[in-house]
Specification:
alpha/beta; Rossmann fold; six-stranded mixed beta sheet; two-stranded parallel ribbon; 9 helices; about 15% strand; globular
Length: about 260
């Protein structure tokens, strides 16, 4: 796949967004708790080889210094620069060398997310994991994503791809990961050839707590102690009644041990 034409405007926007995120302590706490859930089943994470996809704005390395970061944008604070769709051709990361590939709210920005996940399996050790966190459509979050959130939401698509790619920041379909994993369209049938996973084991995370941080664009003056209480309650209800409250899901896929490197069928 041809490298995206990433503009200076995209890079500057990403830098500014990252600076704003790092200054928002409630948002950092939201991410910290999310990452704890993402890596809950990974023992000795600090000793693992972990690659993050889409690290432009991400604060993941603030909490886990051993994480290798990557993005399509040429940003000087990243470890690797490449188009993740072509990860199988990226020789700086040897085949079968990674314990974990992780991404947070990235899959719904990719042109061809299923193709990426298949190609990514080449870099993961047998028994290694791909862990992703993406928007979940519950009763509450559907209203938010459709009427409040600025990114597009399209359920009326025929294939698990973005029909139009304008850039890594502006191209998106929030519904895409949900459709791949939770709909009856069987778009994850190819993935079961490479990974073991179960939708029933998906973990859920928060309902409105992200909005109480103000996100990247704003910083709400919620005292830290009060926000901790909001986050704890919000997380509880998203866990207990995900179809009503959950706004995000975390899915863990384990690479099948009988899959060799470069062996695609």
């Amino acid at each position: 796949m041809e490298q995206l034409d990433c503009t200076e405007k995209d890079k500057e926007r990403t830098r500014k967004n990252r600076e704003k995120l790092l200054q928002n302590r409630n948002l950092l706490l939201w991410y910290k708790k999310l990452y704890q859930r993402q890596f809950a089943s990974v023992s000795n994470l600090d000793k693992k080889k972990v690659l993050e996809i889409g690290s432009g704005t991400s604060p993941l390395k603030v909490f886990y210094s051993n994480i290798m970061t990557s993005d399509v944008l040429k940003l000087d604070y990243l470890d690797y620069i490449f188009d993740c769709h072509d990860i199988d051709k990226f020789d700086l990361i040897p085949d079968g060398s990674l314990d974990v590939i992780t991404m947070t709210n990235v899959l719904h920005h990719l042109k061809a997310p299923v193709t990426f996940l298949i190609n990514a399996s080449q870099k993961v050790k047998p028994g290694g994991k791909v862990i992703l966190a993406e928007p979940y459509f519950s009763a509450i979050s559907t209203l938010i994503y459709k009427h409040v959130h600025p990114e597009p939401v399209r359920f009326d698509i025929n294939n698990p791809v973005l029909e139009e790619v304008r850039g890594p920041l502006t191209s998106a379909n929030i519904a895409l990961p949900y459709l791949i994993y939770f709909s009856d369209r069987k778009w994850n049938d190819q993935l079961v050839l490479y990974y073991d996973f179960s939708i029933k084991s998906a973990r859920h995370y928060t309902s409105l707590a992200y909005m109480f941080t103000g996100g990247i664009s704003k910083s709400f003056p919620v005292p830290a102690l009060i926000y901790r209480l909001i986050l704890a309650a919000d997380t509880f209800w998203a866990d207990y009644l995900p179809k009503i409250f959950s706004s995000f899901f975390i899915l863990e896929m384990t690479k099948k041990r009988n899959r060799g490197y470069g062996n695609k069928t």
